[in-house]
Design brief:
globular; mainly beta; seven-stranded antiparallel beta sheet; 3 helices; three-stranded antiparallel beta sheet; 12 strands
Length: 188
């Protein structure tokens, strides 16, 4: 039964405190990626948990990094970056690039293509992108990239995920296909 519209002005909403914001949004699982670039000073990289596709035409992706991250600033300024989607057995790589350690690239099996950013061997997937632009977003910056090249790993490489403040793996028993209608737009 419909109810009548409320009378009066609704109470003003207040912004959530950071801890509550982090707790609630922690319920949204995210991929874990290491974004890399080659600069005049050498290779740089940073772990990000906010990476997504943006557009199919043109092929655009984006990642978000803290405005205080010198690595993210160097990556955005490099003009070209790589996204290495970490596989479930690459937690050490995640940790190395999430901390301020002097030689992050000592962890993992890295290749250094002459015309591209560092690429992590064994990653679940990787992309090479030209920087299309960046947008300030609160205490983060969104870096948009035009995808030039990409590939997924051969074989069953499952991604590493971040959920509820922890790194987690997909459990084969829980990763069961849920019957739904076809997403025709996905198959194009």
């Amino acid at each position: 039964m419909p109810t009548s519209a409320p009378t009066g002005t609704p109470p003003p909403l207040t912004a959530p405190v950071p801890a509550a914001f982090r707790h609630v949004l922690g319920h949204v699982p995210t991929s874990v990626c290491v974004v890399t670039a080659t600069t005049d000073a050498g290779p740089v990289g940073v772990t990000v948990g906010s990476f997504t596709s943006v557009s199919l035409e043109p092929p655009l992706v984006a990642f978000w990094a803290g405005t205080a991250s010198a690595s993210a600033e160097a990556i955005a300024g490099a003009g070209r970056f790589g996204v290495n989607v970490l596989a479930e057995d690459q937690q050490e790589v995640c940790a190395a690039f999430a901390r301020r350690t002097p030689d992050r690239f000592a962890t993992g099996d890295w290749a250094y293509p002459p015309d591209g950013p560092p690429r992590l061997g064994g990653a679940a997937a990787w992309l090479t992108c030209d920087v299309e632009g960046s947008v300030p977003a609160g205490d983060h910056v969104m870096v948009i990239g035009r995808v030039l090249d990409l590939a997924a790993a051969d074989g069953p490489r499952r991604p590493l995920l971040f959920h509820r403040g922890r790194l987690v793996r997909l459990d084969r028993a829980h990763a069961v296909h849920a019957p739904t209608h076809s997403f025709g737009w996905w198959d194009r």
